[in-house]
Structure formats: C-alpha cells, structure tokens
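re: that complex we talked abt at group meeting.

here r the seqs, copy pasted straight from the sheet so there may be weird spacing, ignore it
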Amino acid sequence: MDLNAIWKNIEKEKFKSPNINKAAIMKAISKESGSPLNELKKRLTYKMYWALGFCLAIPILMLIFVKNTEMFIVFSILETWYLIALAFIWYKVRQLNKVEIGLDMGNDLTKLINLFYKQTKQVLKFEEWMGTLFLPLAVICGMLLPLFYSGLEISEILGNTKILIVATVSIAIIVPLGIWAAKAMNEHAFQKYLDQLAYYKKRLEEL
Amino acid sequence: MIKSEPIQTKKETFIELVQNHQGIIHKVIYLYEDHAETREDLKQEVLLQAWKSYKNFRGEAKFSTWLYRVALNTVLSWRRKQRLEFTSNMPRHIAEQPDTLSDEAELLWRAIKSLEDIDRSLISMHLDGYSNEEIADILGISVNNTGVKLHRIKKNLSQLLSKN
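got the structure back, here u go
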C-alpha cells in the first residue's frame, strides 16, 4: 500500500482552503496592534467621563453651597476649567471613534498607529499643561470656598497673613505632589500601550 | 528575517514567503480542526503568531520548517486551551462536510486524524517529504525517537488500510 500516493490524493482533495492573500496577512498583522488601540480608546473615554462627571458635579455643588457672589465665581472658574478639558478630550475621543479597529485597517496600519499615538499624547500633554495651571488654582479655590462659606470677604482674606502663609505653603506642597501623582497615574494607565504602539510602528517600518 | 535584505523589501518578503508556503498552514489546520469557521480563526491566529515570531527568524532554518513549527505550536496551544474550556460531554465541532475522497484516502485520513496530536503531524510531515532531522527539529524530539515513532505509525496505518 503506497501511503505517499494516497496522501497526495488527500492533499489534492482535502486542503482546498481559500488562498491566503496579502489582505488576509495584513489583517492578521493588524490584530497585534488592535489590542493597545482599543485599550487607549477605552482609557481616553474613561478620562472623558471623569471630566464629564466633574462638569456635572460642580453645578450640583453650586446649587447646594453657593450663598454669595464670591463662591459663585470660584465654582464658575472650576466649572469652566473642566468644560474646556471635557471639550478637548471629547474632540480627541470622537476622532478615534471614527476609526473602526480591526476592520480593513491592515493597509493603513502605520497611519492608524500614528493617529492613536499622536492623539493620546496630545491629551496627556494637554492634561499636564491644564493640570499645572489648574492645581494651584484648585488649591486656592479649595481654601477660599470654606472661608467664603463662613462669611469672610476677599479683602479680609487677603489681609490675613496667617491665611496667606497657609495658602502659600499648601500650594508649595500640594502642587508639585499633585503634578507628580497625575503624571504617575497617566504613565501607569497609558505608557504601556503607547510603548507597544511605538514598538509596532517600528516593526512595521522595519519589515 | 534575513538581515542583509533592504528594509523596503522585508515586509514584502514576509508576505511573499507566507503566501508561497501557505499550504503548510492549511495542512496543519486541517489536521486538527474540522469546523470551517474555526479553521478561519485558526488561520488568522497562525498568521498573527508567524508575524510576531518573524523578528526571531534569522534564515538559519528553512522558512517552511520554521512556519510548520509556528503553525503547529499555535494549533496545539489552541487545542490545549479548547480542552480546558470544554467538558468532555459537550459537542465540540459541527460535523465536517463530506469530501470526494476515495475510500482508501478517506480511510487513511480518518486513521491519521485518530492519531495522537504529535503523531498526526509526524506522519503528515513524513508523507510530505520532510527528513527525520527536520521533523525532529520541528517537533522538538530526537531523530532516533522520530524514526521509531514513524516506523510504528506507518506499520499501524498500513495494517489498518490492508484490513479494510
């Protein structure tokens, strides 16, 4: 019994799968980077929801606590800040949502990776920049609100050396600490996926 | 990946090599999976794993040998995962479509499919003309062991076919 001859017959009749064309190979390749792309999109969306949460929470707090113009101004500054952040992140997430990951992205994979890398970096940079400006402001607002709530006026607060020293020391301690913590959290949440994208991009350029 | 190749052609080389040796991928998948849809998923998985491993391919082994190893490892890992996920009394596959094989070819095919995982690949590689050294290299067993196993499998298959 010639096993080889029978095997040739099996080979001819059995293994009749559709041809593996270039598109199929590129589709498989794109799966490698699909996961970090999805993850980045998801994490940026979470960031957007956080900003949205603050945007909604501040007016509620205003309704409960605001009892003078000074408090209204302080809350409004915070609300404006979060609205700017929300608008920026929403715009970036919307751009990423236009891309359907996993579907026919093989041919433009490098372009897609670049888009995700750039958009995520921009959001992180923007957040860093906003945070650097926002944190001192937030600390000041955080200190002013209870003072305004207790009935003190701005002139009284500015004339009180003790309050000014506490505010200065608080800013000096909390602001760098806050910036460092925000950076560390973003690194933990995003850096791994950004590194993966950079690696896939390099591989695509090399191959 | 062959280092001296110009960068622009390397990507094309990978695609071309896979296309030229795609028979290996089809064969390994057919050996272990009956369900057409799952075969498609497995094909994608093999291609993905091949792509991931391509950076380690230095051209020391033949591309066909390397691709066979990647395909086999991927399919066998998938089978191990499947075994963990499914209980023994659950139907695992939809019945395979009938083929137009001759009786003895059908018999040989079924006999090969009834073999243990490694034996299945071993005999198919042998029938494809791979040397014992290449088979041993792909399967990670000794050349002696390959020879002994092949002898036993071939004897069993011949007996089975003669009986029928």
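couple things i noticed - The CA atoms of residues 33 and 87 of chain B lie 17 Å apart. The first helix of chain B runs from residue 7 to 20.
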